C-alpha cells in the first residue's frame, strides 16, 4: 500500500464531503455524536468545514506560519439549524480548498504543523479528516459507512506517521509507546497487502508493512480495521478479531487518543 496521488486526495475530499453533506441534509443536527461526545452533528460539520477552509487558505496564501481563524474567510458555519444551508456551506468550502490544492500542486511549500511542509500534506490530511468524520456522522445517524481500500489503508498509515511524529515531538501519551520485545500486527483480511507491524523498542516504536507473528493482532475487514485503529469502533466489533495480548492493543489505543 502506497501514498495516493495528489489528484486522488483532492477527489476524495470532494467525494467524502459530498457524502457527508447528503447525510447532513436528512439528519437531526442536534443528535449527539457518540465517537466525538463533545459534539452534536452540527458541531461536527462545523469543525470539518472550518478545517477545510483553514487548510485551503494556508495553501491559497502560501502561508509561512499558522493562520488564526480571523484570517480565514468564511471559516465559521452559518447560524441556525437549517441542514441544507449547512451542507451547502460545507461543500462550497471543500470545493474552494480543492481548487487551491490543485492550483498549488503537491510540491508547493506551505506551513504545516507536521513533518512535511508541502501542499501535498494538506490534500492528504483533509481527505482523511473528512473520511473519518464522515464515519462519525454515519455512526451517529445509524447509516452504513464504507471507503475505498486505498483511502482506508492510507488513513491507517497516516495515523501511524502522526503518532510517530508526536512521539518525536515529546507528546506525553505517545512517549509511553515503547518497551522492547512487544509488537502489534494489523491485518486487513479483504485487501491484499494491507498489513502493518508495529514494534515497540526501548526508544519508541517503529512500523512497517509486514506479515509476522506479533504479541497481539487485530484482523478483519479493512474499513472496520481503519475505524477501530482510529478509535471509532471497539476492537471486537464490526467483524474484527483480536488475537493475543488484548492489553497491548488497548495500551496503544489509549495512548494514541490525542488530536
Which CATH architecture of the largest domain would you pick?
Up-down Bundle
Distance between the termini: 24 Å
Question: Mean pLDDT, rounded to whole units?
Answer: 96
Which strand order does the major sheet show? 3-2-1-4-5
Count of strand segments: 5
Q: Can you put this structure into words, describing what you see?
A:
The chain has 2 domains: 6-145, Four Helix Bundle (Hemerythrin (Met), subunit A); 151-255, SCP2 sterol-binding domain (Nonspecific Lipid-transfer Protein, Chain A, 2-Layer Sandwich), CATH 3.30.1050.10. 49% of the residues lie in helices and 11% in strands. The protein is built from 8 helices and 5 strands. The two termini are 24 Å apart. The mean pLDDT is 96.
Can you tag this structure with a few keywords?
globular, DinB/YfiT-like, Four Helix Bundle (Hemerythrin (Met), subunit A), Nonspecific Lipid-transfer Protein, Chain A, Maleylpyruvate isomerase family mycothiol-dependent enzyme, 8 helices, alpha+beta, isomerase activity, Maleyloyr_isom, MDMPI_C-term_domain, five-stranded mixed β-sheet, 259 residues, 11% strand
Amino acid at each position: 500500500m502506497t501514498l495516493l496521488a495528489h489528484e486522488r486526495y483532492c477527489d476524495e475530499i470532494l467525494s467524502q464531503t459530498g457524502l457527508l453533506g447528503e447525510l447532513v441534509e436528512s439528519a437531526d443536527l442536534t443528535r449527539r455524536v457518540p465517537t466525538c461526545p463533545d459534539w452534536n452533528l452540527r458541531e461536527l460539520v462545523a469543525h470539518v468545514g472550518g478545517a477545510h477552509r483553514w487548510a485551503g487558505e494556508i495553501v491559497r496564501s502560501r502561508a509561512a506560519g499558522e493562520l488564526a481563524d480571523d484570517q480565514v474567510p468564511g471559516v465559521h458555519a452559518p447560524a441556525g439549524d437549517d441542514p441544507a444551508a449547512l451542507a451547502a456551506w460545507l461543500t462550497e468550502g471543500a470545493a474552494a480548498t480543492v481548487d487551491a490544492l490543485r492550483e498549488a500542486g503537491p510540491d508547493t511549500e506551505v506551513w504545516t504543523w507536521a513533518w512535511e511542509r508541502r501542499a501535498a500534506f494538506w490534500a492528504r490530511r483533509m481527505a482523511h479528516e473528512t473520511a473519518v468524520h464522515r464515519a462519525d456522522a454515519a455512526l451517529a445517524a445509524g447509516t452504513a459507512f464504507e471507503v475505498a481500500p486505498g483511502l482506508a489503508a492510507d488513513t491507517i498509515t497516516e495515523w501511524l506517521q502522526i503518532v510517530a511524529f508526536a512521539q518525536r515531538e515529546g507528546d506525553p501519551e505517545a512517549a509511553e509507546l515503547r518497551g522492547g520485545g512487544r509488537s502489534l500486527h494489523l491485518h486487513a483480511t479483504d485487501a491484499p497487502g494491507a498489513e502493518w507491524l508495529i514494534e515497540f523498542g526501548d526508544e519508541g516504536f517503529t512500523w512497517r508493512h509486514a506479515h509476522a507473528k506479533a504479541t497481539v493482532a487485530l484482523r478483519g475487514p479493512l474499513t472496520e480495521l481503519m475505524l477501530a485503529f482510529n478509535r471509532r469502533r471497539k476492537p471486537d466489533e464490526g467483524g474484527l478479531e483480536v488475537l493475543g495480548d488484548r492489553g497491548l492493543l488497548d495500551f496503544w489505543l489509549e495512548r494514541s487518543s490525542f488530536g
